[in-house]
Amino acid sequence: VMFVVDASGSMALNRMSAAKGAVMRLLAESYTSRDFVSLIPFYGDKAEVLLPPSKSIAMARRRLDSLPCGGGSPLAHGLSLAVRFGTQARQGGDVGRIMVVLLTDGRANVSLGKSNEDPDALAEDAPKPTQEQLREEVLDMAKRLNAEGLQLLVIDTENKFVSTGFAEEIAKAANGNYYYLPNASDQAIAAATSSAMAEAKGN
Predict the structure, then answer these.
(1) What is the pLDDT, as a whole number, of residue 169?
(2) CA distance 128 to 122
(3) How many CA within 13 A on the CB side of residue 4?
(4) pLDDT for 40-95, tens place per residue?
(5) Measuring CA to CA, how many Å separate 104 from each of 97, 150, 156?
(6) pLDDT, tens digit, 9 for 90 and up, residues 13-28
(7) Taking burial as the number of CB atoms within 10 A of a residue's CB, which of 52, 118, 153, 197 is the most buried?
(8) Is 147 helix (H, G, I), strand (E, B) or coil?
(9) Spatial distance between the Cα atoms of 61 and 105, rounded to a whole number of angstroms
(10) Close Cβ partners of 117 (under 8 Å, ≥ 6 residues apart)
(11) For residues 116 and 102, is the Cβ–Cβ distance under 8 A?
C-alpha cells in the first residue's frame, strides 16, 4: 500500500494526523496480512518518499513524526512518484498487488515541470500553468497508474461547499475506487483502504 498524502497548506493539520493514524493502523494490520506500507507526502514544490516500503512500525512512527506540511500542492508529482516506485517494486518482484491510496482535496497548483526542476518551469518569467494544464497532468498520471497495473483509491477530503469534484475524476481516470470522507478519522481512512484492498484481492 502506498499512501500519497497531500501535506500542502490546503490540507489542514488535522487531516494530516488522520492520514498518519491510518498509516499506523494499516501497518499494525499489515503484520498479519504481510503488506508493506509506504508513504509519499506532497507539499511545497514536490513530493518525497518519506517512508519507503516498510513493515517497521517503529521506523514509520519516527518518519511520520517528522512529516512537514504547508505550501503548494504538487499533486501530479505525488502520483508520478507512486507510478515510479510502484513499477520498480513490481519489477523487483517482491510485491504482488499494489494499492495507491491518494488523500487529497483535489487541488493541484504546482506543475510537474516545477517539481522536476525543469529549468523552463523555474525561470522567473515562466508562464504560470493554467488550472486546465495542471488537471491534465494529474489525470495523465492517474491513467498511467492504471496502465501500469497499480490500483488507485482516492479519499476525497474536500469540503463540499467548495467542491470541484476533481478528486472523483482522478479516481475515474485511474479506474479506481473513490470515497468521499471530508472529516475522516484515521479509522475511517484505514477501513476504506482495507475494504478496497479486500475487494481488489477478491477480483
Answers:
(1) 93
(2) 10
(3) 33
(4) 888 889 999 988 887 777 888 888 777 777 788 899 999 999 999 888 888 776 66
(5) 22, 18, 6
(6) 666 777 778 878 877 7
(7) 153
(8) helix
(9) 24
(10) none
(11) no
Tell me how far apart the alpha carbons of residues 28 and 22 are, in angstroms, rounded to a whole number: 10
What's the whole-model pTM score?
0.85
CA end-to-end span of the chain: 17
| Set of cell numbers at residue 119 | 529549468
Model confidence pLDDT, tens digit, residues 126-181? 888 888 899 999 999 999 999 998 999 998 877 666 557 889 999 999 999 998 88
Q: Which residue has the cell 513493515?
A: 55
- Identity at 36, one-letter amino acid code: F
Residues 6+ apart with CB under 8 A from 119: none
CB distance 184 to 154 below 8 Å: no
Q: Is 180 helix (H, G, I), strand (E, B) or coil?
A: strand
Q: Which residues contact 34 (CB under 8 A, 6 or more apart)?
A: 55
DSSP 108: -
Q: How many Cβ atoms are within 10 Å of 51's Cβ, its own excluded?
A: 23
Q: Burial level of 124, CB count in 10 A (0-12/13-18/19+)?
A: exposed
